[in-house]
Amino acid sequence: MPIFFSNTTSNFRTALHFSLESRHTQGLANCPAIGIEELVYDTHCEDVYEEEIDQRNITFGPRINDANDVKGQRCCIAYEECLVHLARLAVGHRCELADCSARIDISCKTVGTAMLIDWVCENGHKPSSISRWRSQPLVNGMRLGDLTVAANTLYSGNNFRKIQFFFKCINAGCISESSFLRIQRLYAVPSVNEMYSAMQNSALEKFHGHSVIVMGDGRNDSPGHSAMYCTYTVVECESLTILAVVVVDKRHVGKRSTNMEKEALVRAMSIVREAGIKVVEVVTDAHSQIAKYIRTQHPSVKHSFDVWHGAKNLCKKLNKASTPAKCSHLRPWIRDIVDHFWYCCQHCDGSLIKLQGLWKGVLHHVRGVHEWYVGDGGPGCCLHEEMPDNQPTGNKEWMTTDSPAFVAMRKVVLDPYLIRTLPHYINFRWE
Ligand SMILES: [Zn+2]
Ligand SMILES: [Zn+2]
Question: Are residues 321 and 336 in the same domain?
């Protein structure tokens, strides 16, 4: 499957597309976008240093009110000692009050990713104008660094726990997990959704009125049958443009995870068709519910199975068949048989008869027979070059007709389900 976001350019910068209007998101988008890996570093930091943002509108530095002004703001790693040095240059050493002139104390503390500097004289006099400085401008009442770190943790494909651990390693202040989740929910995720919708709409517009071949595949949020969500992606076969991404929740399909993939394809297909795109062929893995759905609901659409999935399943079945000791002669042949399946799909020229003939021919080949009589119209010989001394390659040996290995192999090769599904492989589609 193609990668949605590419960050291969050397001067890559994530687009700071966040809007300063917070928006609550609905449904799944409301879930925190954190992966399993989030649990790698179990570091917790509470918002103990949360700054009291002064509501009386006393500013300790610039405020930003326009999202465009966020773009292009540069930042750096600044150290405490340097900041105190700078502060000392600005506020001097002695109190300004005429009858005081006590020493001015300068103190630093981190809040979120920012640093705050306060100064007061030993007699407690604060300068009348300003007695605090913040290393970051405020955006909508948030420190810009906090907003940027939270949003870009998501935009750069990182996970919060790792970023938090990194900040801890360099002894820098970091945002708390709750701030991260809040910013993600209110600013970052809605912006991603907005941009994604715009991209998807333009992709759908591009294929409006066209006849296309699409490939679809689903990914469950956890392996096995206990998955809660299935993310199904449908792409246009030639350009690999994503036409639809659908997320299905198990609770909406009778709590059966096996129903999710079909339901997701149904929804994805209607998105594509509603956009005025004519689907002539669908490529999926060999999923019986999906096969039935396309056969009955979209009879004019050709349904191809992904050859890669087919070859993988075949490999599994052959491995299982070769497990008993008496069938061990089959093992060295497995790779060749799977390659042969791939080859047959690739070279059958869209003809089922040719595919069946080539495929069943493997039962002759493994016994050292390369020409045979045919009754079904398929080619009556192997397509490989002549084998002058008729010896199999590698550590393989020709099989004999009544050997357990051959019997086990024949059962897999002629498996009724596999033979019945061969029509789905004649177009040689793979993802
Ligand atoms: Zn003083
Ligand atoms: Zn042969």
Answer: yes
- Total domain count, the chain: 3
Q: How remote is the CA of residue 351 from the centroid of ligand 2, in Å?
A: 20
373 Cα: distance to centroid of ligand 2 (angstroms): 14
CA 343–ligand 2 middle distance (angstroms): 13
- Rounded Cα–Cα distance for residues 31 and 25 (Å): 9
- Over residues 243-301, the pLDDT tens digits come to 999 998 888 877 776 788 889 999 999 999 999 999 999 999 888 888 899 999 999 99
Write down which residue in 305, 338, 365 finishes a domain.
Answer: 305
Residues 78 and 133 in one domain: yes
Instruction: Return the percent helix, strand and coil in the chain, to nearest 5.
Output: 40, 15, 45
Give the distance (Å) from ligand 2 centre to CA of residue 378: 15
Q: Is residue 200 assigned to a domain?
A: no
In a shared domain, residues 340 and 406: yes
- Quote the ligand 1 centre to 133 CA distance (angstroms): 19
> CB–CB of 137/144 below 8 Å?
yes
Q: Are 296 and 335 within one domain? A: no
Nearest to 128 by CA among 157, 159, 96: 96
Q: Which of 159, 190, 221 is the last residue of a domain?
A: 190
Statement to judge: residues 80 and 44 lie in one domain: yes
Nearest-CA neighbor of 238 among 280, 268, 267, 199?
A: 280
Q: How far is the CA of 420 from the centre of ligand 2 (A)?
A: 24
| pTM of the predicted model as reported, rounded to 2 decimal places | 0.64
Ion ligand 2 contact residues with beta carbon within 5 A: 365, 370, 382
Ligand nearest to the CA of 100: 1
